[in-house]
Amino acid sequence: MASAAPEVATPRLDATGLRPLATPPVTPDPGLSRWLLVLARRLVVLDVVLISAAVGGALWVRFGDDATTESVIGLGGRPLVWSYLFMSFVLGAGWALSLGLSRVYDRKVLGIGVEEYKRLANSSLRFWGVVAIVCFLAQIELARGFLAVAFPAGTIALLLGRWIARKLLHRARAHSGGWSHRVLVVGAPDEVRDLVVQLRRSPYAGLDVVGACVPGGQSVPMRRGEDVPVVGSLTSVPQAVAATGADTVAITSSRGMSSNVLKRLGWELEGAGVDLVVAPGLMDVAGPRVHVRPVAGLPLLHVEQPEFTGPVRAAKAATDRLAALLGLVLLSPVLLAVALAIKATSPGPVIFRQVRVGSQGEIFTLYKFRSMVFGAEDRLAAIACQNDSEGVLFKMRQDPRITSVGRWLRRFSLDELPQLFNVLRGQMSLVGPRPALPSEAEQYGSDVARRLLVKPGITGLWQVSGRSDLSWEDSVRLDLYYVENWSFAGDIQILWKTLSAVLTSRGAY
What we know:
The protein is 44% helix and 13% strand. The chain is of the alpha/beta class. The protein has 3 domains: 34-176, no CATH class; 181-281, Rossmann fold, CATH 3.40.50.1110; 311-504, no CATH class. A 5-stranded parallel sheet has the order 5-4-3-6-7. Strand 12, helix 13 (438-441) and strand 13 (457-459) form a beta-alpha-beta unit. Helix 2 (84-101) packs across helix 3 (115-137) and helix 3 runs antiparallel to helix 4.
């Protein structure tokens, strides 16, 4: 019998694919993502507890004290004596298993974005859909009242529990600086700077930049106090990963980063527990507009055009008006109380009217509760030199024209409530760019003027991202991002975040 041929080790090449590497491959570090394992385990425990509570609660609501007794359930026309307590255990275990199979604990979705919530909701919907189909086909007479309570209550509890867990994670990241991915950014200096700035604007995302690899080890131009340590070049990324303890490598644009180099870099990091992500340079294009279409083996990114007209926009307008009408009815006592407070504390009208620029440059009258002394606009020229804002906006932290009641109204954004009438009239949306003054719109360049392609909103990304604390550049960037990437899911998320921003009074003055 012939002896087996000896194994020949394939030489490992550097990132250029030309020279064998003298250094050993990157070895997995079990401590890199330990926090992810801890987080996933805690979420598993949380989900099991919530599912048990939902199923157990549905059992009690439907059967009360008889929940532990055996119930007759039909199977294929033949009666079987099954305990609903046993059935609840089986359904709860199946639900928990369904979550695991749907990858709701995947490290790539935990703690950021809506994908985590979508997987959670879709998994629950699919599981209970399968249960309903099986019961129908097998003629199992499972109590409808039990299903009607367990499914919605459990799904809502899971989503709410995951949201609370995410807020606690964000707080831990803000206070301790831990519970985050360690990111090594690779690319040309200017592109590295842009990506680092974007990541540091959202520290709650858990992407902590620990170093950069740039061609020739050049320095990265950053603002003072925001420096990024350059720890290598494009050919020493694996060594830089080992030196910094990074668990994520983010690739940006660079002349030296060809597809071949990127492929070989992926091989270098294979099996090391390091994620490789590519930032294609589309900084202000949201994921739903980007689709990967493989053509002849090439992963081409197809960017969908933004939608400014059509049935989806019509649905948004109808939803806005219906929500505004409902809001005016429910908040009528608050509106009345605010109006009486303004009238009792300062002379002048209760409602402040101001001309603003709406969609497609249309002029309309915006309504707000008056928060300044009567005739405040006539005194603007005298204090214009004390502007605390950049660009075309006027913002002043200690504006002497604001009344005592007005300062309280602005703190909680109650002065904005009359704009619900603008929404009802179709002049504004609940969510959108900030409504501009005509004097501001006259100074818009062609890029900034894209804010006028959609209706302005009572709230928006600028409202939930810092309000008056934002610079003019950041305000424009957020508004343009919204214009280009609007979605119903995004609007719901902004409205939810608005409540938090208002209660904490971030950036309100």
